[in-house]
Amino acid sequence: MKDRRLRFEERCQQFFYLESITEEAILHIVGQICKKKAPGVDKIRAADIIRYQQIFAPALVRLVNVSIETGCFPDGLKTARVTPVFKGGEKNTLDNCGPISTLSVIDKVMERHLSQKRRHVQTALLSACGSIAMRWRLIQGVHSGAALAQPSRGAA
Fold it and tell me: Which residues pair with residue 98 across a beta bridge?
């Protein structure tokens, strides 16, 4: 695995990083959250985050930026509240229930920022690859965790 990573890094000509988030970006993301979203395990309601966004924004900026800098997603935000929802049939049978997982509203803010940045990185990486064959190898390498294969002679 280490050998493959070294070969990939030797061929890497452009590096990328995730940008830190600004207070304005946090306010924009918070403004897009539905007020009726159910609270997660932390019991923080979306309506409260929206109502007091000027107060919450600096703390959210710090949380997201520290997470990006350290590469660590807070364990507390990985916990979901799971609610069984009846799908039909006999109510006493567990097979007739489906789980609904409710994450923290703070997790949703972080997820939206990281999702936006992931799309930007993907677009930049794909545009840096000249040929369609090279783009395909990049996508396959990213999904499999493997390094990019050397293009064969005569490949487009």
Answer: 85
Q: Strand pairing partners for 99?
A: 84
Q: Is the torsion defined by CA of 98, 102, 107, 109 positive or negative?
A: positive
Taking only the tens place, the pLDDT of each residue in 100-130 is: 888 899 998 988 888 877 776 667 666 666 5
Which DSSP string corresponds to 27-68?
HHHHHHS-TTPPP-TT---HHHHHHTHHHHHHHHHHHHHHHH
Task: Give CA 8 to chain center in angstroms.
Answer: 24
- Other C-beta atoms closer than 10 Å to the C-beta of 155 total 13
Q: Which residue, among 131, 111, 126, has the nearest Cα to 64 in the 3D structure? A: 111
Q: What is the pTM of this model?
A: 0.62
Instruction: Please tell me the distance from the alpha carbon of residue 127 to that of residue 22, in angstroms, as a whole number.
Output: 26
User: In the structure encoding, which two tokens stand for residue 143, read together?
Assistant: 């999904």
Quick one: pLDDT at residue 95? 82
